Every structure is written in C-alpha cells, then in structure tokens.
C-alpha cells in the first residue's frame, strides 16, 4: 500500500500550522489510506470493526484510537507512514527472552491507542492527540531497508498498540520478509477476530500485555474487556506460527493479589501450556495513576514463585535489576542456559539446535546458532539518512 497523493520526499518537507484536530488537513491527507474492517450502518454512520470497541462514527469523527476516522463513509487510517520515532533496542526490552536473544531490533510506534489505561507507561505517545508527535516519516520499504542496514534482525511495532495501524504494520512486515527480517508486535491483544487473523499472519513474534485477570480491572482501568484479550492469546498460541510471550505489569493494590495471580497463571497453564514465557514487570507511577508507589521487588518475586508453583516453566521479572530471575534455565535439570543482566547477555549455553547441552531437553523459542551481541544499547535514529 503506497502513501496516497504525496511522495515520501515531499512528505518530509511538509510544514504547516496545527489545526484543532492536531495537524493540518493537507498534512493529514498526505498520510491517509483506506482500511478494510468497517461497514455502514442504517443511520449512515460507519462502524469500525477493527477492535471490540466497534466505534460508530459520524462523517469526520475519529475513533477512540484517534488514528482511524470516518472520511466519505469509509474508515481511513490517518497516520500511515508516520512515526513518533525510531530506535534500535535490545530485543529483550520488548520483552522477548526466547526470540533471537541478544539481537538488535528497530522499534517504533505511531500515536493513539484503542485502550484507555489510566496507568499507561508510554502515555506521551499512546495518549497523544497531536500529529506533531509523529516526527519521523517512512514508507514500509524504507523501514525495512533501514533495519537491515542498521544490522537489526527484526522490526518491532511498539510504544503504542500496532493493531490500530494494522495496514501500515502489515505492509512493513511484507517488506521485512523480502529482506529476511522478522517482525514483532508488542500489543494489548484487543482486536476483533477477522483483522486478528490477517495481523498475526504477518507477525513472527508477539508480546501480549495481559494487564490483569479480572473484568472489573479491564473495565474500570482500561475501558476494555479481558475476555477479548484471552481470546487473542488462545488464537495466537493455537492458530498461528507467531511466537508468543506475555507481560503482566503488577500494580500495587490493583492486580497483584495472590488469588488473582494464581488464577492468571493457572489459566495460562491450562489454555496456553507451560512453556509460554511470562514476564512480571514493575509498575512506576505515571499518567493518571500516581496515587501509589512503584512495585516492590518482593511483589515481583512472589508473583514468580506463584507462577512457578502453578507449573509455568519460564517466568521472569522485569523493570528491576535481578540477573538471577531475568535469566533462562532448563526446565528439566535447572542448568542456566541464558544469563542476563538487564538487557545484556552474560551467558549463552544452548546447543546449535536450541537445547540444553547438559540433558538435551529442548528449550522453547526461536534461536540462531550464536546469540546477538547488541547488549543494552539504545540508539535513536531518523530514517532520512536512509533516503538514497
């Protein structure tokens, strides 16, 4: 899908004053493309069918996600080819611990989100209602080219939820496959069944943010539904080739009780199996939830103990310094297979085919013969330098 009515080179030179919607009409139209998942209602409103929110929009209205809008009785994506910024990260930061460990990944997001999490840790991007947030522009072929020339093994759609810019993400994934690169979705998994099939067909790995395990939490603190997310998790695991890992951000007093963590980990075991990696991540006060402190490391350790006792084999804690609980171990003999300190690999002890050399038990994931050597570096980049 090409950017309509404007070339990339001219898009990079576009300047204008912001209007009430956050960007000029000319600028917005330059990055607007039609979408597929919508239908016209009897009252002539258009319903967006991308996610379970099913926004019903009058002409000119935007959906809850901010980036999909009703234009001429069709839903269009208004941010195709625009990004809030690009950065080369360690893949462990997504977090993915069983997918190309040690490698670098070109990460980017756009603006907006289809959830309304009061505790959002990336709110300056996901809650943005200003086109000025989208400071970098690149068509899909340029993103893939940049990733390859930067030595990355993959491109990550992150910072805000990629399901809302599905068309752009899929077009980048297609270009990445041409160059032998992988694509990664960091997502809340709040997407309807039909677009979900298309989206995850093009994703090689996903980290899904399972924010809690009660409908009350999802309804009150995210304005969404737990059931839809659980359905997505089951779909990814059972119906796709996409590698799956899960993150649970533990918020003191909101989703960290022993009862809830036991129920959550038991569901993962029964619905997804024991080998899906689970990351318990530390919360820090942000956005609209500053009424409580950061997650104590003792809470993360207890959550990991509960998960391991339940029967999950690969459980990690993140956003804290704890090399022992960030490392990977053989589920059979306990051998340390991948050592980590923050995002840096400190030990690599897998066979060439991804097994424990001590007992030959296969270690689940996607590995290459040798790990990457990117370490903990974070390298912000702009894509203009790759326009040649």
Q: What do you see in this structure?
A:
By secondary structure, the protein is of the alpha/beta class. It has two domains: 26-77, no CATH class; 83-380, TIM Barrel, CATH 3.20.20.70. Helix content is 26%, strand content 21%. The chain is built from eleven helices and 20 strands. The strands form five sheets. A nine-stranded mixed β-sheet has the order 16-15-14-13-12-11-9-8-20. Helix 4 crosses helix 5. Mean pLDDT is 88; it is low at 1-27 and 126-133.
What is the rounded distance between the termini? 21 Å
Strand count: 20
What is the total domain count?
2
Range of strand content: 15-25%
* Strand neighbour order, sheet with most strands: 16-15-14-13-12-11-9-8-20
The unreliable regions are 1-27, 126-133
SSE class: alpha/beta
CATH fold-level topology of the largest domain: TIM Barrel
CATH architecture tag of the largest domain: Alpha-Beta Barrel
For the record, what CATH class of the largest domain applies? Alpha Beta
Helix content: 25-40%
Described by the principal axes of the CA atoms, the overall outline is globular
**Main sheet: strands, sense, barrel:** 9 strands, mixed
**What's the overall average pLDDT, rounded?**
88
Number of helices: 11
What is the CATH superfamily label of the largest domain? Aldolase class I
What would you report as the Rg, rounded to the nearest angstrom? 21 Å
Question: Could you give a quick summary of the protein structure above?
Answer:
This protein has 2 domains: 26-77, no CATH class; 83-380, Alpha-Beta Barrel (TIM Barrel), CATH 3.20.20.
């Amino acid at each position: 899908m090409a950017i309509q009515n404007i070339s990339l080179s001219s898009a990079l030179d576009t300047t204008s004053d912001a209007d009430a919607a956050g960007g000029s009409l000319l600028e917005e139209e330059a990055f607007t493309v039609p979408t597929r998942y919508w239908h016209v209602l009897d009252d002539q409103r258009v319903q967006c069918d991308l996610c379970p929110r099913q926004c019903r929009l009058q002409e000119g209205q935007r959906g809850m996600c901010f980036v999909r809008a009703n234009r001429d009785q069709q839903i269009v994506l208004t941010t195709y080819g625009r990004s809030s910024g690009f950065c080369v990260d360690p893949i462990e930061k997504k977090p993915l611990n069983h997918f190309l460990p040690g490698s670098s990944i070109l990460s980017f997001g756009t603006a907006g989100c289809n959830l309304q999490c009061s505790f959002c840790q990336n709110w300056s991007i996901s809650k943005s209602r200003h086109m000025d947030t989208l400071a970098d522009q690149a068509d899909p072929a340029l993103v893939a080219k940049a990733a390859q020339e930067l030595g990355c093994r993959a491109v990550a759609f992150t910072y805000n939820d990629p399901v809302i810019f599905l068309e752009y993400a899929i077009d980048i994934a297609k270009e990445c496959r041409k160059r032998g690169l992988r694509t990664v979705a960091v997502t809340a998994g709040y997407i309807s069944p039909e677009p979900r099939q298309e989206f995850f067909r093009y994703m090689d790995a996903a980290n899904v943010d399972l924010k809690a395990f009660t409908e009350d939490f999802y309804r009150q603190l995210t304005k969404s539904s737990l059931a839809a997310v659980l359905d997505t998790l089951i779909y990814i695991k059972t119906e796709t080739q996409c590698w799956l890992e899960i993150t649970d951000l533990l918020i003191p007093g909101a989703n960290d009780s022993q009862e809830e963590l036991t129920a959550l980990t038991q569901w993962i075991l029964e619905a997804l199996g024991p080998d899906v990696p689970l990351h318990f991540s530390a919360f820090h006060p942000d956005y609209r939830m500053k009424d409580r402190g950061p997650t104590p490391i003792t809470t993360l350790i207890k959550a990991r103990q509960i998960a391991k006792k339940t029967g999950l084999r690969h459980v990690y804690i993140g956003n804290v310094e704890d090399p022992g609980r960030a490392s990977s171990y053989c589920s059979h003999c306990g051998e340390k297979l991948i050592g980590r300190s923050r995002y840096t690999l400190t030990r690599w002890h897998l066979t060439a085919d991804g097994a424990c050399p001590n007992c030959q038990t296969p270690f689940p994931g996607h590995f290459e013969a040798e790990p990457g050597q990117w370490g903990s570096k974070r390298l912000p980049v702009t894509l203009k330098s790759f326009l040649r």
